[in-house]
Amino acid sequence: MNDALTLLVKAVNGGLFVVLFAVIGEVLVPRRFSGVFAAAPSVALANLTVIGFTKGTHVIGVEGAGMAVGAVALVVACLAGGWFVARWKALRGSIAVCATWLVVAVGGYAVVFR
Predict the structure, then answer these.
(1) Which one of 28, 35, 52, 87 is at 20 to 30 Å from 22 when CA atoms are compared?
(2) pLDDT for 87
């Protein structure tokens, strides 16, 4: 499959997954879950599906591990972010959040993919 066709399939597949997860989110209570379900998980699953078909299932584990490391880094950065912004205000706090994510992500990748 050439790169343009793969990109098209990822876009269509991602859109379908976003719609499916948005419908699931609308059914759940409270409604604030719809944004969570319509965003990253749906696109990640769509991309993993296409990767599985185009590059083989052995690549899915590597890609999924990378997504998990990035997600853990994001959670840590978000948890630290409230404290950083409260202590140092918006600009310096935001820079500290980005630095935290970067340190945790690079460290996680170094541990997982050594």
Answers:
(1) 52
(2) 96
